[in-house]
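Morning!

As promised:
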Amino acid sequence: MTHAYNNRSGVRYMTGGLKVYYVPWKPFLMQNTLPTFYGTLPIIRTILIREKISVVHGHQAFSTLCHEALMHARTMGYKVVFTDHSLYGFADVGSVHMNKVLQFTLADVTQAICVSHTSKENTVLRSGLPPEKVYVIPNAVDTAMFKPAPERLSNNEIVIVVISRLVYRKGADLLVEVIPEVCRLHPNVRFVIGGDGPKRVRLEEMREKHSLQDRVDMLGAVPHANVRSVLITGHIFLNSSLTEAFCIAILEAASCGLLTVSTCVGGVPEVLPDDMIVLAEPDPSDMVQAITKAINILPQIDPETMHLRMKKLYSWHDVARRTETVYDRALRCSSQPLLERLSRYLTCGAWAGKLFCLVMLIDCILWQFLQLWQPDRDIEVVADATLTSFLHEEMSRDSFFFFSGTIDDIS
Amino acid sequence: MDESSAAADSFENGRYKYIHDIHNGPPEAIDVHRIVLQRSSQKKLLIFCFLALLLFASPPFFFFVQQLNLLTTLPWSLLVGGLFVRLLSQKLVKKESVIILPAFGVQLETQYGSGRTIRRFVPISKILKPVLNECVTPVTCYWSLALIIRGEEELMLVFKELYPPVKMLVPIWKAICAAIDVEET
């Protein structure tokens, strides 16, 4: 279940019979809907009852729809799992508020999943959740799609690929310092930069200033389907993020047989084995040294061997299996009475705890009203669709449209 | 003309009642599917609207009553109440029917509480297929039956006002599909 994107709204069936509800709430900021607190209660209740849901799984701390869905699911007695995909700070105003909201959601969650051990530490510190409830399931990469180039590239000219959103968080400013220095030190090195963002202007300026037009290619935004074709043109992948819970980009690069140079932040050291990655501090001179080291080790790298290793190390089937284990544990947890749950909110803080209790109480009252207005038995349960016909026929999925609104998925 | 009708099927769920008749008169068997809003539901709706009006209109009404004589206001309030009930009965749907005339087309009827009936006829050649859609609104999710009309972009809703449950929509969908298949062969 997610909100509507452009004109994509209603119910859609994806590969494998995954049913997606695009609820027509308009997103207002960064793909997030306006926080309505109780506004989403009717539609979430209707969907949970008609699909006979047992576990509600929410993703991403920044998604307002996720927090609301988890809150309503807890009120209605469903088991709840939350996955956190990012690291957040503790210092600035935005982070403080975000952490409070997260504390509210996580105070009563059944289980939580983090994508790396660093992320687990971060989440536990921010939310005060007991560590026994948090599982670590790293993301994986589709190794079938990210294969190395059929022919090995020649080592005369070394191509360094950068694919990321050009924003402060992803270290675009570091790139501006590093690229001219590397071009000066190594005359046979070329850069390919894919991606777009507010910092693109700075990179263009850097190009002009040091006359690097023939040595730095700016590709603009690269759709995900074309990422592999950009990656296989390079020898080295450069990641300059300032913070990262888990970096799938370097997984994709390693699967394509590129040697990775990255800043040693967050969960990055946990992602790749030491011989596939060169780590550096997020400091321009340190990064230049790391790139030099990478260029020297390059002759020893075999893309095919790298790809085969990645195939064994990471697979989405493994992630699915581990997530299912988390769901089983969640289902086995006992249901708790309302008073006990409310007491957990009280531990969140002096005034925050009482506020959270109040919010949950109002939610419970609204739920009771909704049950009187439209009893549970009035909401029809959806029959299981026979999927064999979907797999074999070429059906236009758009025929299921009716109303023209970070993925929250409900399993 | 001797038309014998057999009640082939009928069942009800709290709010709606589904009735299926087959008229075996000449030239061919005519299928009639009716969905009736139950009396209890109609009454509930009326009571709810009345209460809502009482809640929202009474404060300004009482403000005016203090200044006027009660005798003159009483016939006015009765008139307004009567007009209101008439308006409501015009909007309130009593029943909707789908009459399938094989080889001719499908007639969709909507009958309101006041007796007014709106009929729409769709020739069988114009219907491409009936579809059962899952409609998602910001507050709820329900099933609806619609016809894909050849040459037109918009789907035509079979039941404009009522929201019958999917158990009642499925036999109607099957019957329309069967009628189209017979026509094509």
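DSSP finds 14 helices and 15 strands in chain A.

Hope this helps with the figure draft.
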